[in-house]
Amino acid sequence: MLAAQRYNKILQILKQRHSITVTELSKILKASEATVRRDINVLHTKGVLIKIYGGAMSPESYLTTEEKVQIRETVNIKQKMIIAAQAVKLIKASDVVYIDAGTTTSLLIEQLQEKNATYVTNDASHAVKLMDLGFETIIIGGNMKSVTYAAVGALAVANVQRYNFTIGFFGTNGISLTAGFTTPTTEEAMIKEAAIRHCKKAYVLADSSKFGKITPVNFAVLNMASIITDKKPDDSYEKYNIILPD
Predict the structure, then answer these.
(1) Which of 74, 84, 181, 217 could join 189 via S-S bond, C-beta 3.0 to 4.6 A?
(2) Architecture of the domain whose range is 69-243
(3) pLDDT at residue 70, rounded to an integer
(4) What count of other Cβ atoms lies within 10 Å of the Cβ of residue 144?
């Protein structure tokens, strides 16, 4: 296959999948990994893809900014409600539940039924909602982030590490085979990573638009959590635990 043909094939794949690894491209193109890396470098220089560790992604899939909660609350509401409804079925009596900041986790709170569980969150708005609904609530303290209403920073990380959660529910800004679960800022990533490592079972709640997207900071690899989503992603994710609505 000529170089120009490989370039076109790589770009066609990225239109469909948003991101791909060097190893996968090597098999598809029947070319060495060294050749694929050179191709990626050329296309990255041309600005038609973004070179990332171990692979490449389409430019529109790389997100560097974080929208305010008020904006994200209006996006994909139907899908998020379906995901939240599936997630609440997993909570049992006596669970110690971690609920991460986020719009989908907020919808989970609205559908909670289990009163004989303890709910822990780093999101101030989540804590208020939980208390108003009569649930036993613990809020993780720290530096408050105005964009997401989340407690972050060293104090929040230290506080969350004191707990051993039986189950946890997390939001994410992106899900990628190459980058895992990602979020826009280091401070958000630190609290998410600390919490997910202290969960016996962890679930990431993400509508299907999050697949193939990458934001700047990784907080977990894909096999650290099950993914509850509204629609089956492409077959490249089949080895991970994907949970779809009943």
Answers:
(1) 217
(2) 3-Layer(aba) Sandwich (3.40)
(3) 41
(4) 15
Q: Where in the chain is the domain with CATH 3.40.50.1360?
A: 69-243
- pLDDT, residue 62, reads 64
Rounded Cα distance, 215 and 176, in Å: 10
User: Residue 72: what pLDDT?
Assistant: 46
User: Quick one: which of 13, 46, 40, 15 has its CA closest to 28?
Assistant: 13
In this predicted structure, what is the pLDDT of residue 65?
A: 56
Rounded CA separation 174/12 (Å): 21
Half-sphere exposure of 182 (CA within 13 A, CB side): 23
Between CA 69 and CA 55 the distance in angstroms is: 31
Tokens 């997100």 label which residue?
63
The CATH class for the domain spanning 3-61 reads mainly alpha
Cα angle: 215, vertex 217, 218; to 5 degrees? 105
CA distance 90 to 94: 12
In the chain, which stretches have pLDDT less than 70? 60-75
**What's the token pair of residue 139?**
């809020």
Tell which residue, 25, 19, 107, 88, has the closest CA to residue 56: 19
